[in-house]
Fold this sequence. Notes:
- This protein is an alpha/beta fold.
- It is about 25% helix and about 25% strand.
Amino acid sequence: MKQIVVMCMILALAGCSELGLRLPGTQAEPPGEAIDPALASAPPAPDAAAIKPAGNTAEALDATSPEERAEAASASGGATLGRTTVSLGDVAESGFWLKTPLADAPGPGRIENPATGKSAKVELIPLDGPDTAGSRVSLSAMRLIGAELTDLPEVIVYRN
């Protein structure tokens, strides 16, 4: 019985090589076979250490100009709509905005981070949900109010 099992294993392994399957530790291609000419002319892969990350920092992703940031930072006043916990919204959407259930209509507003005392002028964008639900804020506004991008700060929302 052992001989039959061993013979079946040998045949199965031999069949794997016929299908192009290889065992771990075996050569990628049998000696003497030619390399595909299209692959032979391909440039070598770059060294992983030589690849530098680009565009993955908050500064690189923030598409607002220094002038726009200065204008948004000059925010003051407005009627208080309430407090909301904010998280970072879609970083592909540039500008200064807040999507919040506290707003019943789009319009100009302001957010203030009580922890830092910093404010930002934002475009208020209504978001479906109860007023106690959280809000999403733009990357530019999050940076301007001095919050870490991974934080969930509570902000005060004003309508201008």
